[in-house]
Design goal:
Helix content is 73%, strand content 1%. By secondary structure, it is mainly α.
């Protein structure tokens, strides 16, 4: 028998109980009305939905909160109980907790596989020589021997996790059963089930709308707190006004954002130079010149580019387009010049990213151009203007605010792109105006600084949060500006 029941089982039980409640509630309502649904205050389905929601929603809320909060409470409790002398020099409490979790996981795997019994787990002593061998046997690798304090912390971590999960199972099921019983007992032909269900659905809609806002606030606060910690360890003047990016984890790092910001903006500008003309011209053709048959074929085909994963674009930049540019502009290349030394460059990442953004610009611009009233075109034709003159002097000026908003939205998308620049732009932080040089970006550095077992007490790791917050503010500003322009456009023509 498992030490803890999987959460998926609990979810299935709640769903099954709720479905049963739906049919029983509906049946009870009809029975109270003698089988005549006309005597019911609400439709029969509302009575069933009332029982279903009463059993499911409160228990699901408690389950979700428990799953989120329990790991944090257990981690904090166990971490605070680890003696300070256990933490070696150059390590941290977070790294020690990583070993604790691995040992706890190994003990649980060993117990489930039958390699060790519960009694043997309770009798484990860190002085035994077979503990490390036991963990390695079940595939848990450790960087050092298991100290007694680590083993005790792992056993406490495992025990608290089991007790917490069992308590969660009991409490959540009790809440579901109580909700089921109360709503079922109240079910009667005069009960206003429709009002209750509609209020519950309204509360769910409000909660869903609030969740997006709360998620954004949570992301910002998490980055903000870690950024404050970073500036407590590193000079903010060097971060914002320095010109060298050189993290080395020896305490003398130079962590200036300017080289990264330069690479980010440079690659984004190159991408926009590719995406905006092609996307805008494609939108003009599809909205003004193409027949319905051509438009029905070309527009979905163009928008297929938007469905390609960015990792595929990154691989295309790394394997195909970058080497192509190197053969053209590299030493011994087709053009006989030596302007490029690496397949990774600003041009590689920028051009491929521009290709990715073409359907983004094209689709938004096409919708905006089509929203221009036909009366403006008819008035221009009535004055003797040709189709091209009407497009240049009437349609595009009228659609310009919306097009500018679409371009700004594309710019924010380019600035936040990760996989293409990781694979196609390179990893050199420098200030260079040559588009054939390799540069790095903010997103690339965030990935690099948070890869591996990072110590979240060092400025070299915490700088990723400062970079992320800066990038967030930059893209947020572009999005706000774009939405303001688009809204102004819509107010003019709707």
């Amino acid at each position: 028998m498992p030490a803890t029941w999987p959460v998926s089982w609990l979810v299935l039980i709640l769903l099954g109980l709720s479905v049963i409640g739906y049919f029983l509630g509906r049946q009870r309502a009809l029975a109270s009305a003698g089988g005549d649904s006309r005597l019911l205050h609400s439709l029969p389905n509302f009575y069933g939905m009332n029982v279903l929601l009463s059993a499911l929603i409160p228990s699901a809320v408690v389950l979700g909160a428990w799953v989120l909060i329990q790991p944090m409470v257990i981690n904090s409790t166990v971490s605070s109980a680890i003696p300070a002398e256990v933490i070696a020099e150059g390590s941290s409490r977070d790294l020690v907790m990583s070993d604790v979790k691995r040992v706890a996981e190994g003990i649980e795997i060993a117990r489930e596989s039958g390699a060790v019994t519960l009694e043997e787990i309770r009798a484990l002593d860190a002085t035994q020589t077979d503990i490390r061998a036991l963990l390695e046997e079940v595939g848990v690798a450790l960087g050092s021997d298991v100290q007694p304090a680590i083993l005790k912390a792992a056993q406490d971590y495992r025990a608290m996790s089991i007790n917490g999960s069992n308590a969660m199972m009991i409490i959540v099921l009790l809440i579901a059963i109580v909700g089921f019983g109360r709503s079922y007992a109240r079910t009667h032909h005069e009960y206003r089930a429709r009002n209750i269900v509609e209020r519950a659905v309204l509360a769910l809609l409000i909660g869903a709308a609030s969740l997006a806002i709360l998620t954004t606030v949570g992301i910002v606060l998490s980055m903000l707190f870690e950024t404050v910690n970073f500036f407590g360890l590193h000079d903010w003047k060097d971060f914002f006004f320095g010109t060298v990016w050189a993290p080395n984890f020896r305490g003398d790092s130079e962590l200036a954002i300017f080289p990264l910001l330069w690479g980010t903006l440079y690659i984004s500008v190159v991408a926009l130079f590719v995406a905006v003309p092609i996307g805008l011209f494609a939108a003009i053709y599809l909205s003004e010149y193409a027949s319905k048959a051509v438009r029905g074929f070309a527009k979905p085909l163009l928008e297929i580019l938007a469905g390609i994963p960015t990792i595929v674009y990154g691989l295309f930049a790394l394997v195909t387009f970058g080497p192509f540019l190197l053969r053209m502009f590299g030493d011994g290349g087709v053009l006989g010049v030596n302007w490029m030394t690496d397949a990774r460059s600003v041009a590689t990442a920028g051009i491929v990213m521009g290709i990715m953004l073409i359907p983004f610009v094209s689709s938004l611009s096409d919708d905006i151009i089509n929203a221009v009233p036909q009366s403006l075109r008819d008035g221009s034709y009535g004055l003797g203007a040709t189709k091209s003159e009407t497009i240049r002097q009437v349609v595009l000026p009228a659609a310009l605010p919306g097009i500018v908003g679409a371009i700004l939205l594309a710019a924010s998308r380019a600035i936040g792109e990760t996989m293409i620049v990781v694979l196609g732009a390179g990893a050199i932080a420098r200030l260079s105006a040559n588009p054939l040089d390799a540069l790095t970006t903010i997103t690339t550095r965030i990935v690099s600084q948070l890869t591996g077992d990072g110590d979240f007490a060092s400025p070299e790791t915490l700088v990723a949060f400062a970079l992320g917050l800066t990038l967030f503010v930059l893209t947020l500003g572009l999005n706000v500006l774009a939405l303001y322009i688009v809204r102004k456009y819509r107010e003019q023509y709707e």
